[in-house]
């Protein structure tokens, strides 16, 4: 399976490309914003595709063509304004979904926020609410398609080494999770068709990833 990782230069994206390349039976196409970001991915043997998410759907579709699945793990980051949150986390996600539809790619995995229910928008801090709102509408857009989607809602992200042990469910107690473990959850979702049409929260736990997803 060839997988387009949108937001490959982000922290989850980097882990995911590495996981895919080391799987032995999948390959990654890393979508990046500039050629300067390509070296580390090429060192892993991954294909790269330079594309800015603020371009049009037709341009983004070029990055999608020829892959079997798309993972959206891009984000504007905590140090940008509301404008970038709209343009990347919302519009970039929607355009990626539309590009997948245009290219005939059915499998899409969305990395969302831990809680994107409308209540979460209302209870979020003024600085965080725009991000939650963007993720809410991006998730809604994906749910309304006929794509084979999975929506992953990770808890607070850390740079700790992954343990391979998680707690997943429609609703779990809020907690943290290493980005490396999130990447491995995504890889397992790509390999397990039973995760199609599902969405779940994920935090660190005591159950191996494959087993935890099987129990959903």
TrEMBL record:
Source organism: Pullulanibacillus pueri
A Pfam family it matches: NAD_binding_10
Descriptive protein name: Putative sugar epimerase YhfK
Source superkingdom: Bacteria
Gene3D superfamilies for this protein: NAD(P)-binding Rossmann-like Domain
InterPro entries: NAD(P)-bd_dom, NAD(P)-bd_dom_sf
Domain NAD(P)-binding, chain residue ranges per copy: 7-193
């Amino acid at each position: 399976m060839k997988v387009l990782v949108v937001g490959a230069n982000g922290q989850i994206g980097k882990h995911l490309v590495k996981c895919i390349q080391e799987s032995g039976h999948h390959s990654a196409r890393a979508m990046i914003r500039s050629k300067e970001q390509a070296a580390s991915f090429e060192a892993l043997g991954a294909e790269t595709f330079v594309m800015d998410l603020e371009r049009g759907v037709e341009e983004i579709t070029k990055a999608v063509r020829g892959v079997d699945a798309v993972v959206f793990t891009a984000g504007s980051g905590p140090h940008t304004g509301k404008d970038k949150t709209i343009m990347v986390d919302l519009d970039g996600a929607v355009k990626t979904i539309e590009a997948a539809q245009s290219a005939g790619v059915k499998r899409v995995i969305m990395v969302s926020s831990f809680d994107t229910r409308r209540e979460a928008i209302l209870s979020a801090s003024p600085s965080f609410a725009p991000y939650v709102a963007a993720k809410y509408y991006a998730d809604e857009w994906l749910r309304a398609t006929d794509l084979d989607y999975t929506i992953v809602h990770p808890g607070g992200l850390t740079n700790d080494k992954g343990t391979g042990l998680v707690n997943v469910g429609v609703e779990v107690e809020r907690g943290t999770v290493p980005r490396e473990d999130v990447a491995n959850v995504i890889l397992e979702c790509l390999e397990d068709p039973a995760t199609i049409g599902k969405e779940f929260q994920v935090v660190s736990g005591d159950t191996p990833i494959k087993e935890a997803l099987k129990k959903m």
